[in-house]
Amino acid sequence: MAGARLEKVTMQEHMAINVSPGPIRPIRQISDYFPHFYPFAPALLRPRPAPLPALPNGPAPETALGTALGSLEFTLLLDQQNCVLHCTIHRAKGLKPLDSGSIDTFVKANLLPGTSKASQLRTRTVRGSRGPRWDETLTYHGFTCQDAGRKSLRLCVCEESRLRRRAEPLGELRVPLKKLVPNLTRSFNICLEKRRLTKRPSSLDTARGMSLYEEEVEETGEERGRILLSLCYSSQRGGLLVGVLRCAHLAPMDANGYSDPFVRIFLRPNTGKKSKYKTTVRKKTLNPEFNEEFFYAGQREELAQKTLLVSVWDYDLGTANDFIGGLQLSINSTGEKLRHWSECLARSDRRLELWHPLDGAPPQLGD
């Protein structure tokens, strides 16, 4: 506009024009533009990996120093009616192998407390994957709600290696079973932890390259396994029906880690071959199913004064059979054994099934 008066702008006002306020950004270093010229640059100048999200059912993994061992997804189901615990191993994520390259992994499950090898189950080996998927169910037979109240389950992810003689653990986790709801499947996704050491290795063991991890030894009174028996006094046939249904968690007697079990039953005192029976042999198993029934004739009052001997054996060809465990049912028994025997003879035509732990006392077959 003609005749308009020009206003003077000071230097401070000129510097403030088109300036948007905001946070002050750090000045980029020369190493950011030429990182390959500075291989020994401090770790603070290098970009940090993004932290992993926290898992819903476990603690947040350690990521600052890269010490996360990975996570394991699995489900647990307590079948109260069949007295079975199902543990389904789905998959693992973010495993860190001991050596570079491919990784061959499997999962080993163990009920604690427990020292018997029969209580240790494992999945198949998945080869060449740091995120293996198994989708395999491990089953513990003879597992009751009372067991869930005092036991826990340890799951250990192990790595197989051709260079080492034994598998090495990558991480483990423990789940208390007392909070399981019967007949309700519960899902878990838990971070693995370092395996607990129970014994410090000596320098000689370390020099020989032996494993630094020792198996935990915990006391248990069921090292030999369990047996499921059914008793029924038949008024129509006039005698006792004894059913040998199945066994669970039997102690291994053979070098392959299994047994060839069969069951013998004997009613004492009695004479003749009709007082002694035995089931068929089940090959290479620690959880055999028999489903066989035997009959003892006699009146209820007469049978109440006798003793039923049940013993489990490992069949060996050409040598003596190995005794695994046994039990006695009579009016002189205690606990669940006495209840099973008494209730069976107290009522007619009523089948009663019950699990019994095996003890290490060999049966006396003589009268």
UniProtKB/TrEMBL annotation:
Q: Which SMART domains match?
A: C2
Which terms are listed as keywords in the entry? Answer: Calcium, Metal-binding, Repeat
Q: Which cellular component appears as one GO term in the record?
A: presynapse
Question: In its UniProt entry, what is this protein called?
Answer: C2 domain-containing protein
Give the gene that encodes this protein: LOC114038713
A biological-process GO annotation: regulation of calcium ion-dependent exocytosis
Q: Which organism is it from?
A: Vombatus ursinus (Common wombat)
Q: Which Pfam families match?
A: C2
Q: Residues in domain C2?
A: 68-192, 223-356
Matching PROSITE patterns, A to Z? Answer: C2
